[in-house]
């Protein structure tokens, strides 16, 4: 089989700061002298109150396990994203905000305006009692105030925890309680695809289950009539007393910057903690390198700030680099499938960075909505979140990008802070479906199930052999879980949870998660999380959840549910359980298939055999493999006979 290879286009070879030889040189330098390499990057990319004299201080071994970078440096992340740009580009646009409703006017916020907004927001928070080290939960729609709130926390040295606006009251309450936030920043309502999202109402419901919560700061976004109680404060009223200036807090490099909750293979989401200097450097470095960012380029990362992609590539990376970043309130395909390209034309977007699931959804609508737009401003296209199928890759490249824009497929995770394996547009020939090669400073390793390192062309489990500045530092409140989750499967290495193939050219091809995590529309969901939600229902005795192939979402959710003896399967119960899980977790957790199962396949020791459940969900009922270790092999026949099609 011959693989298609797309060489670096001529214009990119000429424009890009990093060409093939320079990539090779940087990579070698980063491996030969990591500390020198990172100290140089840290000094050139960030403004310091006190420059660091040391770079990495880390060990992945149990005995002296630690991850620290630039430990004696002092800085402020908001200063780096805002203040330091004032002199040279104070009047240039920092944020372009595109509203959900296409007939409304966009907003353009200059660096100078951003500075004033962030200072005022920080002063409001400070007056409400927020101090260095406090946790602030941000549950916001995609409006500029969300960006102000995030940067205001960074300015004060408070730790933000952004919770995606699509999460349920229960999910929000769990995240507020886990990190002990006393304050939530929210809006009356959000808007997405013409729909209203009752954020304040959801916070009120969450508050009942989150006793740590004392204050709710409400931004007026839609003007909806929302009840305001004793703990609630309107942002616009608090603003009346807020000063325009706020001194950025002096932070240690290793002071926490934010917590972001993400699903793992056990029930409870983990609070991934990132610290100030290492994370900010990683966001800035990868944004500059992967997208070859140049002043004047309009950069659009079409994610939500509730995910790490939004943190690193709507806010911290582009703003640290003085870029113009586009923040879009709505959905790529609303009011119609042309919208994403109309936004590109309206704001003359240079780089578009989105997820394969969005591309697959758009592709389904045919080429017309794309061809109805110009897209002449586009020079670079990026993807993130899941493996991109070559068909979607080619459509993105040929139809959306008219064959002229390289596709930067970035592999990374919430835990890594930013891109790790990705092509550089001026240096790397592309192969559709491969995230290509590691960035300088990243040392991927493939290991077999015994932890033996595999050389050359191979398939195995993807680990990272050495720390990098953007690495997460701990799981909030559970350092032991951090170590256990990532460093015990293959001792001495960070284990990503992904399977991966390396081809003869040293290109990496991510094959997907090898743990009990599924990737639904580029969002991570733990199967255990969905199972816990299901068994909370009074009529459910037991549940097992696995991923199944889905042509738009990448993976869909397949649930096997065993009911209590006094309950029986029905259409109503089916609908009720779907609604139940959505209410417990959020609409991301919409079951794509639900099969009522009289029993689940278990080993004699009572362990559910997920391998079999996965095969049935995939429709691969011919290859179930060895079922002889099951306590009752007949269970499988019933499951196969009653398999549900999504
Ligand atoms: C998991 C991380 C990265 C930010 C958004 C998701 C999968 C991510 C790719 C890619 C193949 C990818 C992996 C990874 N993934 N990007 N380009 N190619 N797989 O962050 O929620 O932390 O999920 O997403 O399985 O482990 P996340």
UniProtKB/TrEMBL annotation:
> Needs which cofactor?
Mg(2+)
Catalytic reaction list: acetate + ATP + CoA = acetyl-CoA + AMP + diphosphate
Question: According to the UniProt entry, what is the EC number of this protein?
Answer: 6.2.1.1
Q: Where does Mg(2+) bind?
A: 535, 537, 540
Cellular component per GO, a single term: cytosol
The UniProt entry's GO biological process terms, in alphabetical order, are: acetyl-CoA biosynthetic process from acetate
Q: Which residues bind ATP?
A: 385-387, 409-414, 498, 513, 524
Task: State the Gene Ontology terms under molecular function.
Answer: acetate-CoA ligase activity; AMP binding; ATP binding; metal ion binding
Q: Post-translational modification, briefly?
A: Acetylated. Deacetylation by the SIR2-homolog deacetylase activates the enzyme.
Membership in a protein family: Belongs to the ATP-dependent AMP-binding enzyme family.
Recorded protein name is Acetyl-coenzyme A synthetase
Q: Which organism is it from?
A: Sphingomonas lenta
Q: Cite the source lineage.
A: Bacteria, Pseudomonadati, Pseudomonadota, Alphaproteobacteria, Sphingomonadales
Q: Which gene encodes it?
A: acs
């Amino acid at each position: 089989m011959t693989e298609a290879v797309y060489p670096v286009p001529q214009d990119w070879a000429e424009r890009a700061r990093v060409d093939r030889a320079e990539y090779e040189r940087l990579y070698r330098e980063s491996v030969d002298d990591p500390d020198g390499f990172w100290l140089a990057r840290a000094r050139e990319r960030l403004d310091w109150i006190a420059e660091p004299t040391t770079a990495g201080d880390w060990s992945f071994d149990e005995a002296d396990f630690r991850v620290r970078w630039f430990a004696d440096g002092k800085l402020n992340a908001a200063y780096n994203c805002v203040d330091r740009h004032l002199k040279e580009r104070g009047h240039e646009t920092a944020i372009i905000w595109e509203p959900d409703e296409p007939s409304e006017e966009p907003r353009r916020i200059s660096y100078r305006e951003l500075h004033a907004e962030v200072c005022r927001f920080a002063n409001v928070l400070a007056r409400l009692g927020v101090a260095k080290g406090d946790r602030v939960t941000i549950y916001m729609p995609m409006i500029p105030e969300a960006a102000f709130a995030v940067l205001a926390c960074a300015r004060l040295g408070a730790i933000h925890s952004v919770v995606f606006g699509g999460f349920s009251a229960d999910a929000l309450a769990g995240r507020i309680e886990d990190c002990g936030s006393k304050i939530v920043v929210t809006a009356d309502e959000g808007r997405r695809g013409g729909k209203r999202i009752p954020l304040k109402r959801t916070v009120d419901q969450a508050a009942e289950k989150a006793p740590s919560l004392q204050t709710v700061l409400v931004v007026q976004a839609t003007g909806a009539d929302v009840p305001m109680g004793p703990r609630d404060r309107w942002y616009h009223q608090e603003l009346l007393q807020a000063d325009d200036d706020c001194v950025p807090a002096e932070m240690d490099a290793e002071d926490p910057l934010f917590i972001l909750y993400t699903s793992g293979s056990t029930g409870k989401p983990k609070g991934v903690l990132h610290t100030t200097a290492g994370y900010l450097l990683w966001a800035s470095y990868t944004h500059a390198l992967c997208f070859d960012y140049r002043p004047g380029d309009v950069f659009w990362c079409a994610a939500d700030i509730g995910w790490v992609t939004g943190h690193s590539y709507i806010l911290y990376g582009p703003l640290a680099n003085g870029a113009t970043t586009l923040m879009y309130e709505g959905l790529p395909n609303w009011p119609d499938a042309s919208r994403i390209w109309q936004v590109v034309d309206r704001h003359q977007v240079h780089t578009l960075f989105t997820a394969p699931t969005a591309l697959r959804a758009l592709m389904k609508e045919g080429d017309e909505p794309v061809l109805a737009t110009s897209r002449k401003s586009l020079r670079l296209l990026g993807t993130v979140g899941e493996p991109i199928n070559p068909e979607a890759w080619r459509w993105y490249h040929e139809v959306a990008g008219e064959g002229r824009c390289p596709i930067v497929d970035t592999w990374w995770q919430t835990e890594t802070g930013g891109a790790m394996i990705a092509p550089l547009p001026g240096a790397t020939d592309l192969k559709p479906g491969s995230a290509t090669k590691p960035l300088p400073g990243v040392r991927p390793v493939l290991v077999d199930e015994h932890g033996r390192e595999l050389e050359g062309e191979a398939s195995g489990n993807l680990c990272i052999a050495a720390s990098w500045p953007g690495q997460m530092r701990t799981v909030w409140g559970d350092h032991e879980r951090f170590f256990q989750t990532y460093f015990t499967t293959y001792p001495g290495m960070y284990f990503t949870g992904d399977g991966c193939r390396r081809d003869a050219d040293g290109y990496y091809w991510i094959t997907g998660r090898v743990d009990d995590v599924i990737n639904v529309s580029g969002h991570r969901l733990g199967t255990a999380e969905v199972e816990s939600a299901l068994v909370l229902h009074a009529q459910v005795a037991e549940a097992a959840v696995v991923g199944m192939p889905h042509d738009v979402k990448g993976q869909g959710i397949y649930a096997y549910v065993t009911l209590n003896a006094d309950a029986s399967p029905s259409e109503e119960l089916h609908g009720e359980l779907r609604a139940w899980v959505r209410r417990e977790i959020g609409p991301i957790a919409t079951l794509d298939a639900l099969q009522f199962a009289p029993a689940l396949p278990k080993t004699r020791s009572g362990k559910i055999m997920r391998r079999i459940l996965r095969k049935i969900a995939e429709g691969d009922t011919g290859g179930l493999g060895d079922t002889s270790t099951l306590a009752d092999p007949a269970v499988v026949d019933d499951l196969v006979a009653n398999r549900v099609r999504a």
